[in-house]
Amino acid sequence: MYHHVTNRGRNKQTVYRDDSDRTLFLDHLSISVAMCKIEVHAYSLMDTHYHLLIRSLEGRMSEAMQGLGSRYTQDHHARHGTDGALFKGRFYSKVIDSEGYLGEATRYIVNNPVKAGIVGRPEDYIWSSYRATLGLEPAPMFLNANGVLIEYFDGDRNALAGFVNERTSAEGNFYRHVIERRDNGQLLSADRQEATDRSCRLLELARQKPGLISSVREVSEFVCSAFDITIHDVLAPRTSSELEARDLLMTVICVQGIAETAELADAFCISDSVVRRRLSASRKRVTNEKGWESLVATGLALLPLTI
Q1: What is the pLDDT of residues 196-218, one digit of tens each?
Q2: CB atoms within 10 A of CB 230
Q3: Are residues 238 and 163 in the same domain?
Q4: What is the Cα–Cα distance from 293 to 286, expressed in whole angstroms?
């Protein structure tokens, strides 16, 4: 899974005073890449904050980001004779669970300098990954400059440039508000409404088969209890734990024949291919992990044996 990771200075203070600070941060980012087996697919360093699009290969994203923040803070203080907390707290991470959001995350990150009025075109900003992705300059060793380009745009740099330069779309506007409001520690009402809409779609699937509404609600409550989260977290997941909860709910619903993958994709607002991948991974976990097998079995037991 891709993650859009961001953090800003405490009390909106400057975290990169000069280009040497930015170089230092990227040096420490390269260390995290090597030590914790993460991939960096896009980045943008602003004065007061950063944005990263990363993928963890070994589930060590938190370790990588905590180490990055700690090392950079120490060296920043050593350079400037300062002390105390540099960043506002723990980094914020949004899971990118659809191809649409993968494109929007990339577009949002590299357009940050344009939105801030620093440059007129994203390719003119030297402290982002975009120039390397377009082939305008060599990519640093830690950057997977062509990962999203190949996966989402079939390697077509012109298609990527056209998409980035559009800068606006309904999905992009929603994505921007989610990132910016959560970055300020606020809960976006539209995000909660989206989860509510998904809940309605899920129950609509149950309504098509008499007697299942109460059972689906019971399974949903079980999943929430198992992961100690709300149904909104399950239906609009942001963390790995919330994604696991969604996987469990989708697995039970699909195995018991309540919905096909296309119906689940519509209910959860993700692509059919994402549903298939997550269900395939869940089936493997049932075979290899006793704890996951037990969770799925408990969920299935809450539904009628025949649909």
Answers
A1: 667 777 777 666 665 667 777 78
A2: 14
A3: no
A4: 4
Residues 13 and 158 in one domain: yes
**Eight-class DSSP state of 140:** P
- The Cα–Cα gap between 80 and 58 comes to 35
Q: What is the layout of strands, in order, in the sheet containing 92-96?
A: 38-45, 49-56, 2-8, 92-96
Domain that holds residue 250: 189-301
**pTM for the structure as a whole:** 0.61
Classify the C-alpha dihedral 202-1-146-66 as positive or negative.
positive
Query: How far is C-alpha 289 from the geometric centre of its chain's CA atoms?
Result: 25
Whether residues 70 and 165 fall in one domain? yes
Q: How far is CA 36 from CA 8, 67, 94, 102, 142, in A?
A: 22, 10, 19, 22, 12
Rounded Cα–Cα distance for residues 108 and 27 (Å): 23
Among candidate residues 183, 205, 226, the one where a domain is terminated: 183
